[in-house]
Amino acid sequence: xxxxxxxDAFYASIEERDRPALRGKPVIVGGNPKGRGVVAAANxxxxxxxxxxxxxxxxxxxxxxxxxFLPPRISYYSEVSEQIHQIFNHYTPQVEPLSLDEAFLxxxxxxxxxxxxxxxxxxxxxxxxxxxxxxxxxxxxxxKFVAKVASDLGKPDGFLVIKAEDVQAFLDPLPVRRLWGxxxxxxxxxxxxxxxxxxxxxHQPRLLLHQLFGKWGEQLWAFAxxxxxxxxxxxxxxxSISNExxxxxxxxxxxxxxxxxxxLTEQVAWRLRRQDLSAQTVKIKIHFSDFKTITxxxxxxxxxxxxxxxxxxxxxxxxxxxxxxxxxxxxxxMGAGNLVSGKRIQGELFLDEALQKQQRIDATTDLIRLKxxxxxxxxGGSI
Length: 383
Ligand SMILES: [Mg+2]
Prior knowledge:
By secondary structure, this protein is an alpha+beta fold. Among the domains are: about 60 residues, MutS, DNA mismatch repair protein, domain I (3-Layer(aba) Sandwich); about 55 residues, DNA polymerase, domain 1 (Orthogonal Bundle), CATH 1.10.150; about 110 residues, DNA polymerase, Y-family, little finger domain (Dna Ligase, domain 1, 2-Layer Sandwich). It is built from 15 helices and twelve strands. Strand 10 and strand 11 form a beta hairpin. The N and C termini lie far apart (about 45 Å). The C terminus is likely disordered. The structure holds magnesium ion. The site of magnesium ion has 5 residues, from strand 1.
């Protein structure tokens, strides 16, 4: 069985945990509401106003002016993430992180030691609660896709187990947008054909899905049948690392796309650094609203694992790919390939430790500026 473990409102929950004065109030972590940033995380109180992550912060401000807006502290959240991963690693080495707060675990090899997948899921959830005072939602199922849907549906504080024989009955009544990567455009295309549920979708001829979505239609078909062959692959065993986001609404504003690219690059760089890997190649992937896909990549003269270096290349690739008038974007992905072990930062040999530290701080500062604007963040309410 596969576990999908996803922290509830991760960044916002950490802020609430650390500052009791925030409890019970809407908390939004993200870019400056007066700037062009996006919401990185919103707690459930803020979500009750319609705020959700990846929404422009300015819109979140209009929906929930009394919210407390906080700038993200990514390096701190990474430390907390590391603590969560220590808990995961205690139960299995087969952990595939998707982002700072989300991972797949394959426990089939360690069930002898710790009990079955359900027992392991319960122990992990409990341990995160008692040692870190944070809440995780857990989905347990025979494969990745179903496990992820299960953890999502259970949120917040979820714990949902879908046995192999129950997979189809679990998926069938769900709306098609639960299918991985469908996005709003795909949802609307299906809606026009009167296809709303997974049950309806899997009774369509495969040809229709192919006509609507191209090759990717096959994948949809498989998901709708509860099939997903992808294995859980720990980052230390991979040839490339990538993260992607499917937008709720297709995006055409390049500024917003850049903000999303920063967030994706942060995740990829974090995953590289924790395995002490460096990337020689930077890739981006763009799915347009018409389901056409392009990928762009660039090979670097020196492999790197710093967010800053990776981002510079990724942003250039994005700018070049979208230089002309482009179609709205449905999905954006960022990846690091040609991985080598260790840090290979140019000139590093000549830097002493203090200088290196400074370099890291500089990179972080640059990043925050790029993503969230130069002006200081202002709180929408008072703590
Ligand atoms: Mg989460």
